[in-house]
Every structure is written in C-alpha cells, then in structure tokens.
Inverse folding.
C-alpha cells in the first residue's frame, strides 16, 4: 500500500512536470511583430487555455495606439479586402540594409515601385528581398539557403516588383546595399493589398495601448470555440519598424491538475496490471513468502554468522520448511531464471540464486528486500 502510494506520488509529479513542459512549449509566451494592416487570428484550445493576453511594452512611445484585440465566438471569415500605399525615401548606408515587416494573410499582394539613385551619378545596384519571417538575418551571406525567400533581385534605376503570398505569416521587404563604400538613396512606393478578418461580430474589443494599461485579456469560456483577432490600422508611421507585442496564454490550471491525476492513476493501474502479469517470478510463493528470513532454522551455519545474526528474528515457530530449490521458494528475483539457492548475511533474506547474490556482494550492493548492506552470501543445500 505504501509502495503504491509513493509510486502514485512520483507518477503524479512526473505527469505534472510533463504537462507543464508541454504547456510551455505549446502555449508559451511569444513576441509578435505587428506591422501596419495586420489582422492576425489567434487560436487556442479553450480546454487548456482560459485567456489570451496581449501586452505592449509600456516603454515604447505611442506603440499599440491602433492595436486592437477582438474576441469572437467563432473564427470570422477572412474576407475584408484592404489596400493602402506607403511611400518612402530612404538612404541605405554602405553595406547595410533597411527593412519593413508586415503580417500578411494568404492571398495578399505586395507591390513595390522603386527608383534607385546614387549620389555620385554612378549606379550602384541594391538588392531587394521579400521573405517570410520577421527580420532580415544575414541574408546576403547565404541567399540560396534561405528557402523562406519569396523574391530577391538586384535592381537599379526604376522598376516595379510584385509578390503574392500563399501563407498567412510575417513577411519583410528589405533593401540591402551591397556596396562597401557608397550610400544609396532609394525611393520606394509600396502598395499592399491584403485581406482582413471581418471582426464586426466581436463580443470583446480591447486596445492594449496606453489607455488599456498595455494589457488586454480575452477570456475563453470552457469548451467554447472562441478565437481572438489581433489587428492594427495602417496609417503612416514615422518609425518603419514593426511594433512588437507579447502574446501569452493563461493556462486553465484545473485541467492540467485533473488531467495529471487521471493520467497518473491510469499509469499506476497499468503498472499494477503489468506487475501482476509479468512481475518478477510470479510463479513463486508470493510476497509474504519471499520476505521471510531464511536463517531461523539453519543451525549448522550459525558458527559462521557472526554477531549480527542475533538481530534477526528467532521466533522459529512456523517457518521450518526449507526454502530452496523448487520448494515454494520460487525463482531468483533478479534473473528470474535460476531457483533461489542462497541467503544473505547479515539480514538472512533469501531472494536470489547464488550467482546473482555473489554479484550483489561484489558490487557492494544491498539486500533486494531490506536494503541492508550485504557482507556475505551463503549457498543453501536443500536435502
Ligand atoms: C526549408 O525551411 C523549412 C523551415 O521553414 C525547413 O524545415 C526545411 O528543411 C527547409 N528546406 C530546405 C531544403 O532547406
Ligand atoms: C524614375 O522614377 C522617378 C520617380 O519615381 C522619376 O522621377 C525618374 O525620372 C524615373 N527615371 C527614369 C529613368 O525613368
Ligand atoms: C503559391 O501557390 C501556388 C499554387 O497555388 C504555387 O504554385 C506557388 O509555388 C505557391 N507559392 C509559394 C511562395 O508558396
Ligand atoms: C462583416 O460581417 C457582417 C456580418 O457578420 C456583415 O454584415 C458585414 O457586411 C461584413 N463586412 C464586410 C466588409 O464583409
């Protein structure tokens, strides 16, 4: 009973730990880049999550001003087209890049008209890259390995590029100046067409901007199909960097705890069943039999036992039957193969065959039953 309880406790601890790890892996906090015109669906299982939290860094000026977290009872249709222009004139320093990040839903189209000028009249080409992801990471070093790249081209003079996206994700447009010495000025006119979620059916609206103290939490009812949509407007920003928001999930702890308890119980039951079916030497005489010290009736060995032998119980009332080969003693609990034919000193338990017992003594181990340290192992000769 005690062993079962402690087994259950360790199984429960294991299950709790595993569920925490799973939860953190699956519903951990993530930082999202929210570009202009973002409409991003946030889904979480209402069984495991009781709230979707969005927070913006209070430190960043004016960020989150046009950010809204919508809560909807069901996933809304992605069917509100929107299109806006962005005009930029940027100087790209030598061997450096500029980038703009957007969250685009599938079916979106990016168009960019460029006009590259160099100060000294000599044309220096720029590299324009459109790629999935939120940031330009040493792209120039290995463009061929970046399979997230949708488009890249060396450009100079005037021209237009266009790219459609199939997958709702973050994308960036970057312009890279590959020249080591000359800055290059580029005039860019973006035209971005994307689809937004129709959030007119939202039952929750919260702007995590300064008015909302930087934090919004949308509570998910248990077993509901609710989703959240994080959206931002697309008015011109001076700062071209995408703003970052933190998205986190509030775990439904009850589910984790109850689930862990149930799982631990199931595992324990499974363990007990397996133990019953395939446990060590089940053919043997059972637990009570195995635990009985064997020494009590072996007078002839007494001389070699030493003083510690006296600590072993000497009741000698009813255990006179020899416990050896094939006589109800069962097999060796270690190899489950050979019969028990030895006993340990000083504890007097008989649990293993002589070979296994000798090995335990060699390895300085303890008795498999009482854990007492073994000094000697003696062979039993059944007659
Ligand atoms: C492409 O990128 C994905 C991850 O985005 C990666 O799993 C896959 O192995 C990559 N394929 C190649 C050929 O590099
Ligand atoms: C390139 O476009 C700019 C405006 O974007 C225009 O002023 C310029 O004349 C154009 N240059 C050529 C060679 O077409
Ligand atoms: C987009 O989808 C089309 C087919 O619908 C496919 O041919 C094309 O390769 C896809 N593009 C990307 C970037 O996945
Ligand atoms: C959004 O959905 C509502 C109904 O839920 C509909 O009345 C409205 O026209 C939709 N808006 C757009 C732009 O499709």
């Amino acid at each position: 009973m005690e062993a079962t309880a402690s087994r259950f406790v360790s199984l429960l601890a294991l299950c709790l730990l595993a569920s925490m790890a799973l939860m953190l892996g699956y519903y951990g906090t993530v930082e999202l880049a929210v570009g202009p015109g973002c409409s991003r669906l946030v889904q979480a299982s209402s069984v495991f999550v009781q709230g979707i939290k969005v927070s913006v860094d209070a430190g960043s000026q004016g960020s989150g001003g046009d950010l809204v977290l919508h809560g909807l009872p069901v996933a809304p249709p992605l069917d509100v087209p929107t299109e806006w222009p962005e005009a930029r004139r940027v100087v790209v320093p030598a061997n450096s890049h500029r980038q703009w990040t957007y969250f685009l839903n599938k079916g979106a189209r990016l168009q960019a008209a460029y006009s590259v000028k160099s100060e000294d009249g000599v044309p220096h080409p720029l590299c324009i890259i459109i790629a999935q992801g939120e940031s330009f990471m040493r792209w120039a070093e290995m463009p061929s390995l970046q399979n997230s790249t949708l488009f890249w081209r060396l450009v100079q003079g005037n021209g237009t590029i266009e790219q459609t996206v199939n997958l709702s994700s973050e994308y960036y447009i970057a312009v890279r100046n590959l020249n080591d010495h000359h800055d290059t000025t580029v005039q860019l006119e973006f035209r971005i067409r994307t689809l937004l979620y129709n959030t007119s059916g939202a039952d929750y609206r919260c702007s995590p901007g300064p008015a909302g103290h930087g934090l919004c939490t949308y509570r998910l009812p248990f077993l509901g199909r609710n989703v959240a949509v994080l959206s931002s407007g697309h008015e011109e920003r001076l700062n071209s960097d995408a703003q970052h928001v933190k998205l986190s999930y509030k775990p439904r702890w009850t589910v984790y705890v109850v689930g862990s308890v149930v799982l631990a119980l199931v595992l324990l039951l499974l363990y007990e069943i397996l133990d019953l079916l395939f446990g060590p030497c089940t053919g043997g005489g059972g637990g009570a039999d195995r635990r009985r010290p064997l020494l009590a009736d072996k007078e002839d060995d007494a001389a070699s036992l030493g003083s510690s032998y006296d600590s072993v119980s000497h009741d000698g009332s009813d255990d006179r039957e020899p416990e050896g080969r094939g006589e109800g003693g069962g097999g060796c609990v270690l190899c489950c193969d050979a019969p028990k034919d030895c006993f340990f000193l000083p504890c007097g338990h008989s649990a293993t065959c002589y070979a296994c017992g000798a090995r335990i003594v060699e390895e300085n181990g303890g008795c498999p039953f009482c854990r007492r340290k073994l000094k000697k192992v003696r062979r039993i000769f059944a007659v």
Remarks:
- The two ends are 37 Å apart (CA to CA).
